[in-house]
User: Which sequence fits this backbone?
């Protein structure tokens, strides 16, 4: 079979991402059930019921804080919930202590307190970007500034913690009636710290008892990928439509699996010690991509091998789900997949793919039978990074200082509005500045939308509860039944993906701040109204500041990560294994994992590009790099991996061509970065070499060349000027 015929007949199809069309379709996709989602929702409902019962029984002021903690700090698994709750709880307690010290020195000196508040705001903005624990530093400084601002608004001093002489809100007596304002402020701070301690304890205890184990997420992800591979191998999925699940796994990569593994290691330390999880995840990423290429190349003569591979993949999946019941069958499976690949030796196109599939399944089987990667000789290298609280470029990157100034300016404007209007109820505008000011404009707008939509829904439900249900409530059971539907809705959204989870937090926040005011029933609807108005003001201010002062587009972040991914491809193209017969080479796997992380970072960045409606990216004649183009670049890793793993000695021609490809990928990355020499990329792409003694590399060099030229044809029109660079956006594609 000639190279030309092979490329014509067997070129793999482009991945069909299968994204739903339109905003409603995307919303419905985000609201679909997922493993563990119902469990997390019911766990949040249980925490709300326990918090309300404790608060109403013991007449705890600021009862809504207990519930807000559960929603704000909860993740989708027990490990992250526990660790986040402990770290955030300690941060809030430390912030409360520092606030007391700060007010002791500045409460009677507004001329000193206001500049210090501005300085702390600058620190919050800088540390949130420059520190490795940025979110915690942001919470710490925000808490000090916010509580100090409450002290500065004299109307609020002493009226935040109430005493009761009866069982209704009509019996509220502000504690400032019987103690000095300074002492009342201290009372407020200490009480808030105590309430946070109760809330964090409740969160930790409930998640330790009934939290969702991230090991389930990791196992389900691995099982789903193995079953998708098995379906394609045994012929149950013959069309591209049926193969869409595997294609979607190829597009997503394994970033979610790696995140689940890291969380699982906190609850199951033995997983980290054995290193089997990391080796399994890396192997699974390669298996999925290999199968994307091999699936359209299947023919009648490879039925025995493909069915054996499918049987092995399905057996591995069943053993992962039920180790005790299926382990014996997996041990007894003696099919020699590498031997079955020999029938492909005359086909240089499929033989390397079949070898990689057999090798990957052998790794997965070995790790399941003996879950200790070191005993197999392919333990991933673990590099212990030097612990540092700041990023390496913390004091060199001007973006961090600019982010700090943007937040400080937004907070100053919102604070001035609250003082000028004498309207303490809209202080949520200041909170909004800290919470929604992110690195890029697209990400900021995304969080703004979630915050305002969630607040509107929560406030509307809260006001509706007050008007329609509150007059008929006579006991605690009535209150619990009334809040159940909204809690379930907020919990379901909170337990979703990062695209919508913050809206669930805001629904719960606005709803319970409206409904739970003090002790007993309430008819006060001003809290919900003021909260929404404050959020609207904060969103407007943050947006105007973000697009006016040093705006950062998500396309800039996507471009930086895509340049990094392209350079890594060049490194992998020139990589030569030191031990060609080894089943895994750690250094090569690390580079491949870096490439996967870079591609995942590109996708995460461009997903919010449609929200940047003002066009931070200059238009050029080049085509936009959209989600499908990112997938095309991602799939270049397969022929590059095949070329480096072919078990035929490398001659000088192969090595020379690999080095030329590395230089070309560097030039391609430079063009994506700054637009230099774009018109020369097509001419300078080295043609695939003729290798009569190495037909496998010959055809796979041709495959790589074909795919590169397709990408260039899409990106660079014939009349493209050399200084133009591609625009990175997803407006034309649902991402």
Assistant:
């Amino acid at each position: 079979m000639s190279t030309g015929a092979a490329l014509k007949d067997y070129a793999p199809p482009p991945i069909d991402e299968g994204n739903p069309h339109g905003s409603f379709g995307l919303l419905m996709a985000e609201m679909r059930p997922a493993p563990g989602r119902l469990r997390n929702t019911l766990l949040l409902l249980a925490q709300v019921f326990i918090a309300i019962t404790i608060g109403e029984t013991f007449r705890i002021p600021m009862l809504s804080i207990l519930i807000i903690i559960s929603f704000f700090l909860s993740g989708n698994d027990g490990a992250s919930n526990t660790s986040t709750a402990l770290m955030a709880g300690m941060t809030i307690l430390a912030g409360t202590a520092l606030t007391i010290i700060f007010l002791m020195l500045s409460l009677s000196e507004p001329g000193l307190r206001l500049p210090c508040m501005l300085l702390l705001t600058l620190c919050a903005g800088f540390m949130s970007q420059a520190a490795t624990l940025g979110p915690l530093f942001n919470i710490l400084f925000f808490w000090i500034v916010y509580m100090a601002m409450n002290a500065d608004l004299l109307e609020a001093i002493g009226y935040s913690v109430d005493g009761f002489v009866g069982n209704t809100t009509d019996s509220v007596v502000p504690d400032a009636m019987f103690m000095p304002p300074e002492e009342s402020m201290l009372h407020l701070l200490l009480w808030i710290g105590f309430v946070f301690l109760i809330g964090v304890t409740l969160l930790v205890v409930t998640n330790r008892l009934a939290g969702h184990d991230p090991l389930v997420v990791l196992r389900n992800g691995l099982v789903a990928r193995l079953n998708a591979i098995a379906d394609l191998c045994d012929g149950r999925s013959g069309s591209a439509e049926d193969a869409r699940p595997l294609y979607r796994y190829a597009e997503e990569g394994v970033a979610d699996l790696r995140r689940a593994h890291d969380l699982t290691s906190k609850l199951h330390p033995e997983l980290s010690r054995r290193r089997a999880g990391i080796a399994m995840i890396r192997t699974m990423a390669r298996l999925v991509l290999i199968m994307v290429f091999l699936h359209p190349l299947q023919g009648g003569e490879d039925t025995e091998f493909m069915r054996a591979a499918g049987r092995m993949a399905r057996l591995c999946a069943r053993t992962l789900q039920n180790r005790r019941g299926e382990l014996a069958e997996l041990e007894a499976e003696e099919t020699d997949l590498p031997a079955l690949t020999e029938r492909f030796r005359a086909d240089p196109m499929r033989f390397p793919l079949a070898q990689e599939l057999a090798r990957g399944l052998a790794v997965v089987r070995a790790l399941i039978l003996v879950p200790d990667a070191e005993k197999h000789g392919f333990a991933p290298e673990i590099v212990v990074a030097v612990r540092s609280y700041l990023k390496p470029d913390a004091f060199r990157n001007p973006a961090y200082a600019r982010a700090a100034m943007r937040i400080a300016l937004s907070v100053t404007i919102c604070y001035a509005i609250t003082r000028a209007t004498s309207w303490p109820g809209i202080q949520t505008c200041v909170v909004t500045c800290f919470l929604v000011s992110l690195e890029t404009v697209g990400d900021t707008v995304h969080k703004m939308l979630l915050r305002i939509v969630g607040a509107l829904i929560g406030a509307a439900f809260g006001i509706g509860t007050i008007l329609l249900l509150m007059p008929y409530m006579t006991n605690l059971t009535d209150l619990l039944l009334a809040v159940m539907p909204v809690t379930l809705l907020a919990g379901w959204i909170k337990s979703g993906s990062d695209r919508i989870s913050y809206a669930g937090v805001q629904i719960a926040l606005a709803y319970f701040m409206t409904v739970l005011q003090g002790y007993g029933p309430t008819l006060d609807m001003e809290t919900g109204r003021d909260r929404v108005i404050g959020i609207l003001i904060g969103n407007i201010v943050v947006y105007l500041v973000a697009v006016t002062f040093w705006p950062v587009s998500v396309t800039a972040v996507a471009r930086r990560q895509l340049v990094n991914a392209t350079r890594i491809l060049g490194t992998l193209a020139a990589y030569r294994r030191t031990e060609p017969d080894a089943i895994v080479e750690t250094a090569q796997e690390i580079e491949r994992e870096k490439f996967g992380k870079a591609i995942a970072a590109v996708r995460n960045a461009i997903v919010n590009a449609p929200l940047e409606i003002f066009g931070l990216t200059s238009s050029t004649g080049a085509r936009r790099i959209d989600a499908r183009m990112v997938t095309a670049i991602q799939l270049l890793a397969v022929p590059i991996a095949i070329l480096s793993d072919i078990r035929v000695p490398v001659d000088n021609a192969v090595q020379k061509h690999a080095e030329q490809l590395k230089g070309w990928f560097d030039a391609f990355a430079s063009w994506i970065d700054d637009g230099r020499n774009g018109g020369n990329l097509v001419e300078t792409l080295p043609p695939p070499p003729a290798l009569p003694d190495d037909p496998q590399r010959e055809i796979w060099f041709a495959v790589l060349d074909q795919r590169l030229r397709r990408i260039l044809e899409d990106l660079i029109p014939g009349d493209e000027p050399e200084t133009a660079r591609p625009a990175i956006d997803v407006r034309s594609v649902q991402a």
